[in-house]
Write a structure and sequence with these properties.
Rossmann fold, two-stranded antiparallel ribbon, globular, alpha/beta, 10 strands, single chain, about 20% strand
């Protein structure tokens, strides 16, 4: 679910302006999963641009008040969700923690860093949703620690159907600030890509795991 349509468009434009989103229809990136992709999203770059960083912080704050008014704590997904989660926690004067993908192999072997108490109503902050697998592993870690996870908020989502299904199955409300559907029209309008690239970009979005476009590669 997108928080607000007008802000989703503004954020998509910001991501393109600062090169946090790279679109390369004539070539492709290879993700860690092995998927071939004409897009790469690195939301860590938003932290280096105060206007964009503050815009995201304000949107997360407004979203929290609108969709999760009973939240008692914020938790960030390590590593890219940590900074934005901490900024939100500071803006709302809520406790903050962060969650690793797996427990540490030394020291206290923590997976969750920070204090989480049984029954705490937690909202999770993520930077990017692709398949949702790693994000939902964090959700399960918090639930196992006794937290009541109200939902997750993320900066951007590709909007893959399997991710939507996974969040629904996990009974986790997902709110994102922007998405692929808002990004692509703006990318065409601002000449980051050409109109003739639209069909290919949308075909990738529908089936990224099996997508091959030999016409371009």
């Amino acid at each position: 679910m997108i928080f607000q349509q007008h802000s989703a468009k503004q954020l998509a434009e910001y991501l393109l302006q600062i090169n946090a989103v790279k679109l390369t229809p004539q070539t492709h990136f290879t993700w860690a999963s092995g998927w071939k992709s004409p897009i790469y999203c690195d939301n860590r770059l938003t932290l280096s641009y105060p206007i964009v960083r503050n815009f995201i912080k304000q949107q997360f704050t407004d979203c929290l008040h609108t969709h999760f008014p009973t939240a008692q704590a914020i938790s960030g997904v390590a590593t890219a969700g940590i900074a934005h989660g901490a900024l939100l926690a500071d803006a709302t004067s809520l406790p903050f923690s962060y969650v690793r993908s797996a427990p540490k192999q030394h020291g206290l072997s923590n997976q969750i860093e920070g204090k989480i108490s049984t029954g705490d109503k937690v909202v999770v902050i993520e930077d990017l949703i692709s398949t949702g697998k790693s994000s939902l592993e964090v959700l399960e870690a918090l639930r196992s620690a006794g937290a009541e996870v109200l939902g997750m908020m993320a900066i951007f989502t590709y909007g893959f159907p399997n991710a939507d299904e996974a969040f629904a199955k996990a009974n986790c409300k997902l709110i994102t600030l922007s998405d692929y559907e808002h990004l692509i029209p703006i990318a065409i309008q601002k000449n980051y890509v050409q109109p003739q690239d639209l069909e290919m970009l949308m075909q990738w979005r529908k089936a990224p795991d099996v997508w091959e476009n030999k016409h371009y590669f």
